[in-house]
Amino acid sequence: MEDRAHGGGRLRLNAQVNIIQAFAYPPIFRGFIALVLAGCFFPLAGVFILRLNLVTLRFTLMHAALLGAAIGLALHIDPLLAGLVLDLVAIAAIARVARESGLALGYVSTFFMVLTIGLAFAVIYKAGVPAKDAFGILWGSIYSLTRIDLALIGLYSVAIVLFVTLLFPRVSAVLFHREIAWASGVHEAALTTVILVFVGVSVALLMQLIGALLLDSILLLPAIIASFTARSTRGFFLQACIIGAFCSVAGFFTSFALDVPASSAVTVIAACLLGAGLIYRRFSRRVA
Amino acid sequence: MSEECIRIDGLHVQREGVEILRGLSLMVACGDRLIVAGPNGAGKTTLMKAILGMVRASAGRILVLGQPVGSREWSRGRRRIGYVNQESVHVDFPVSGREVVEIGTCSLRLGRAEKRRRIEDAMAAVGCSHLQGRMYARLSGGEKQKLSLARCLCQDPQLLLLDEPTSSLDPRSRSELMDLLRVLNERRRLTMVMVSHDAQVLSEPEWKIEHMEAGAFA
Questions:
Q1: Contact across the interface for A231 and B96, Cβ inside 8 Å
Q2: How far apart are CA A89 and CA A60, in angstroms?
Q3: What is the pLDDT of residues B144-192, one digit of tens each?
Q4: Which of B91, B93, B103 lies at the smallest CB-CB distance from A184?
Q5: pLDDT digit string, tens, across residues A229-253
Q6: Which of A76, A268, B68, B106 is the most exposed place for a label (fewest CB within 10 A)?
Q7: ipTM score here?
Q8: Would you call A169 an interface residue with chain B, using a CB distance cutoff of 8 Å?
């Protein structure tokens, strides 16, 4: 099995190694815990993306995180933290510009998406950041996480679970219809901003964990599959989490068994489940 | 409680430089049933959103239940206004009938049991208890509007604003909804302001009618 290690190094594990023994290696244990946490709880942010149609915003956040990583590498600070900060700045800017200009979030997101990737290339070139290090964030590595990274993922998981469970009726109102949420006494603008922050942080963390190219397998696919089977918003959140957890755990062990990167194993399993979900949806509609 | 439920004086609303409402004045007494009629583009929905505080007035003032719209006091009492919006909300994501009604309780400071009781009472009052576990997306227009009414009732409102509530309903569902509104008005003394250009609704007795045209009352 092979995965890219932080800073361009490589960590090679013997495919035959006993899984129990492998867990004795802190990077592998940390990677497993991080993947399980992400699988269980990050699909909650996927539900937000899906329902509020934040797909363009998600790309913008990936580019902003890349710009953050480039700045981080240029200034010798943690690229994950720098990416997180840039994502939060991008969200604040997008929300402000959209509100002040009255433009749709999609247009504003597209502007920032192009701007941030342009700036990222400029920083990489001007600061002499090795491109392979900066672009390392595109494929991520579950085995290169530090304790701080894991703590951030843990904190985020706790925060998003508390947010969704404690404020469920308000969150549900905003997801249902923003005008109705407002008329029901919900501070929908503030709540939407918090939701955007959760989406931004989830994108930044997942880029480090499994990479920008594959983060949809944990973030979005479980939510899409759950949307086929759930009958209520509570069920939607819960099923997205269960599917995400299954994909991450099954992907991790499959990666050991087949000697493939964990991120691609997770993605292939999630894609297979999505295919099964589409068949189920087609069948259930025909029956209905 | 003030006998004036809504008072609007010289209301002007502009959007992107275009004047949508032009010096509107209106008084609705508590317990009244009013239909604001008029063609598309007359400014009916903007008027409703101005009363709800979703649209800012460029001039004039609106008092709802004695409080100026936008003031801190009004903001605290915002839930006293129920809002049924223009069309049955098109929601294709999983949400159950009960969860839609539950939205009406989300800003109430009540215990879990009390909220549950309110949801059940509201659903029973509009006759939609059987829709609790049904997926909202699969309901008919009439069923969706019943859930919207139940959602509003959970807020224990004094004023109900209805924006074209019958636009997507068949004649039978329309008639059921109008009966239901009449009963709610009589039993709860709920003030109702409805925006509509549905000819059948406009022929309803016992509703006052104000006609709007080009942002002003005709």
A1: yes
A2: 12
A3: 989 999 999 999 899 999 988 888 788 888 888 888 899 888 888 899 9
A4: B103
A5: 999 999 999 999 999 999 999 999 9
A6: A76
A7: 0.86
A8: yes
